[in-house]
Amino acid sequence: MTIHIPISDLEPKVRELYLQNKIQSLGIDYAPNSIMGWVGKEEIEVFNFSKVCKMDNRWTGYNLYECETEIIVEIEGL
To answer: Distance between CA 31 and CA 60 in Å, rounded?
Structure first.
């Protein structure tokens, strides 16, 4: 399964940081059900899946791709 998250779905502050390439080490944190990243020494929430689905890492893995216009999450193992 592939999930496309357009940057227009990101909060304005996060969108600005994303477009400036200031967010590093994007990954899914399953506890808050979110894509998290780092800006300097501060961890920030980039996208929360709670309104869409509950992410679970028990049976699947993922690849995350950062594109200019979207974040792509490719779920493996489905």
So the answer is: 16
